[in-house]
Amino acid sequence: MMMHEGLGATHWLWMLVMAVIVIVPVSRICQRAGFTGWLGLLAVVPIANLVLLYFLAFANWPAVREATDDAE
Questions:
Q1: d(C-alpha 49, C-alpha 34), whole Å
Q2: Is the model more confident about 35 or about 70?
Q3: Residue 71 has what pLDDT?
Q4: 29 domain residue, yes or no
Q5: Spatial distance between the Cα atoms of 72 and 55, rounded to a whole number of angstroms
Q6: For residue range 10-66, what is the model confidence (pLDDT) as tens digits?
Q7: Using an 8 Å Cβ cutoff, are 52 and 23 in contact?
Q8: How many domains does one find in the chain?
Q9: Would 3 be classed as within a structural domain?
């Protein structure tokens, strides 16, 4: 018994739009920190997004290391 058969495509389109809205800025943050932008994909994976958040919060960012090396 399927009550909302016509909403399937709309649902997936909405999910895709929301994923892009989340992935793009997270990917940009990863790039600015000096990591690969592909880590942004983890933002939409449950539990992995929390691991990514803690990784970014407590890791030594390569971009910061390069900036301090250049300043010396």
A1: 18
A2: 35
A3: 67
A4: yes
A5: 27
A6: 888 988 999 999 999 999 999 999 999 999 999 999 999 999 999 999 999 998 877
A7: no
A8: 1
A9: no
Please check whether residue 36 is in contact with residue 58, taking contact to mean a CB–CB distance below 8 angstroms. no
Alpha carbon distance 35, 52 (integer Å): 11
- Which pTM value belongs to this model? 0.75
pLDDT for res 11: 85
How far is the C-alpha of 20 from the C-alpha of 48, rounded, in Å?
A: 17
In which domain, by residue range, is 27 found?
Answer: 12-67
Distance CA 26, CA 6 (A): 32
Is 56 among the domain residues?
A: yes
User: Is residue 49 domain-resident?
Assistant: yes
Structure tokens given for 30: 């990863």
Separation between Cα atoms, residue 50 and residue 42, nearest integer Å: 9
